[in-house]
Amino acid sequence: MTRNPSPAFFALGLGALVVSVLLGNLALLSFELPQWLRDVLPFRMLRPMHVSLAVGWLFAGIIGFVYYALRELTGRPLPHRWLWVHWAGYALVGLAIMTAYTVNIYGGREYWAFPPVLATAILALWLFFGGVLIRYGRHIQRTHCCEDTGHFTRWPTYWWMWLTGWIFFTFTFIETYLWMFPFWGKTVVRDITVQWKAQGALVGSWNMFLYGTSLYLMAHTAGGRRVACSPVGWWLYLLGLVNLIFGWAHHVYPVPNATWIRGLAYAVSMTELIVLARMIAQWRQSSTPPDASAFHGTLRWLHTTERWIFVNLILAIAISVPVVNLYTHGTHFTVAHAMGTTIGINTPILLAALFYVLEKEGRRLSAGFARHSVRMFNVGLAFFWAGFLLAGAVKAYYGWGKGLEWAVYRHKVGNALWVSYAASFLLIYVFIRIAWRAWRAASRPVVPAVKPEVEEEAIP
Ligand code: HEM
After folding, report:
1. What is the mean pLDDT of residues 29-39?
2. Which of 224, 236, 255, 432 is in the most buried spot, having the most CB atoms within 10 Å?
């Protein structure tokens, strides 16, 4: 019988992450590169390559983990052959996207800068993934949602989050291509409104998957299964859902919109992060310290997420205030927000998931390795992020009526970015080291798998 391809999805994702950060590093200071290198690797090519690969990492990790979790939750073998077809399709589409960028064929928008025809392949693979999620979700054992709590559904919150994330991604992914139809594409205001709305909701849909994943990890390591059926878990789900429906509104200040929708969107998107941070904080207090736990890697990466949620929350609250947004929109503040959340929140959750799979499969990495990796990651990201904020501040300050020549202005912004550039080497080192050590661990003989220390401990 063929093996579950979850680890192969992680391997693909980590490969995409490493190439992505290397290209991001080139893109960061591309204006300082020698002309010949800039001709070969222009910023307009490096940026979409970097962003597509980063998004590729997020989805490969999400899909790989959901397949792994479904096997654990149902106790049944999944249709491995078909999952491998999914894996091969995912790799081929990724390759096609990179090839298209390399030969200068674009045609898409924002995160989907590749030719739109490739979107049909992505959609087909995504529908297959949803089919597996729903079909096997039906067999999730009752024990995963504590019957004694009188829980009204047999499915834990994380499964609802994955399902909801899947439905919303399908919808918004299609929405991002509405510009191809004249009714939307030929009217500027309608086009911009739909684009910004869809891109905002798209991020919300992958966040739903990641919140579900962090709940799963808490429930299956040191938190006890009840965490996945607790009232706080349901609050997080409901807030995430309202955020998916309205959260995009705080991205579209420049286009007409009802004030109450903006207000609600602003309030909900911030509350959602607060609830997630609170859950992790509570879970951390009630769980074993990482070094004493068999799941030390998983715990460390999840704890890190909590810190970065707070840091990103402060920035998000600040740049969402309309008058501040007027200055920061389109500057490196926005990039700091996008990368602060994808690197600081999404990536550690997926790394926690990766460590969980390794730990469960008896291929765990040492506690010291996890500790050092997390420390280097935090230091690297702190400087990387601060550099972008500095560049954003410089851009916002000089961009408003100072009458500077473009070259002088560019030079000032570029100076601030040196901080991020230097810090990016540390992040690149951390990611390469994790990818390499995970690969080596996956290829060595298995040591006995570990079990959660606490099965039924409740979180209030
Ligand atoms: C550590 C090395 C990294 C470097 C040097 C880097 C560099 C860059 C650069 C130069 C841009 C374009 C900024 C602009 O348009 O002015 C960018 C955008 C972006 N990067 Fe990174 N990046 C890194 C890591 C990552 C990682 C690990 C992720 C996600 C997992 C990520 C996600 C993104 C996203 C989503 C954007 C688009 C931001 C937007 O919408 O404005 N980056 N990055």
Report:
1. 84
2. 236
pLDDT tens per residue across span 118-140 = 999 999 999 999 999 999 998 88
Cβ of 19: how many Cβ atoms within 10 Å?
Answer: 17
Q: Is 404 left (phi over 0), alpha (psi -120 to 50) or beta?
A: beta
Rounded to 5°, the CA angle 114-115-121 comes to 95
Q: State the pLDDT confidence band at 448, using cuts at 50, 70 and 90.
A: low
Q: Which residues have any ligand 1 atom within 6 Å of their CB?
A: 21, 24-25, 27-28, 47, 50-51, 54, 57, 334-335, 338-339, 342-343, 347, 424, 427-428
| Rounded-to-integer distance, Cα 205 and Cα 15, Å | 23
- How crowded is residue 314: how many other Cβ atoms within 10 Å of its Cβ? 10
d(CA 112, CA 24): 17
pTM of structure: 0.92
Distance (Å) from CA 419 to ligand 1 centroid:
14
Q: Whose CA is nearest to atom 39 of ligand 1?
A: 335
Structural domains of the chain ordered from first start: 224-460 (1.20.210.10)
Q: What spatial distance separates the first Cα and last Cα of the chain, rounded to whole Å? A: 43
| CA angle 38–391–192, rounded 5-degree value | 80
Ligand 1 atom closest to the Cα of residue 334 is: 41
Q: How far is the CA of 339 from the centre of ligand 1 (A)?
A: 6
CB-based burial label for 448 (10 Å; 0-12, 13-18, 19+) = exposed
- State the Cα–Cα distance between residues 448 and 363, nearest whole angstrom: 9
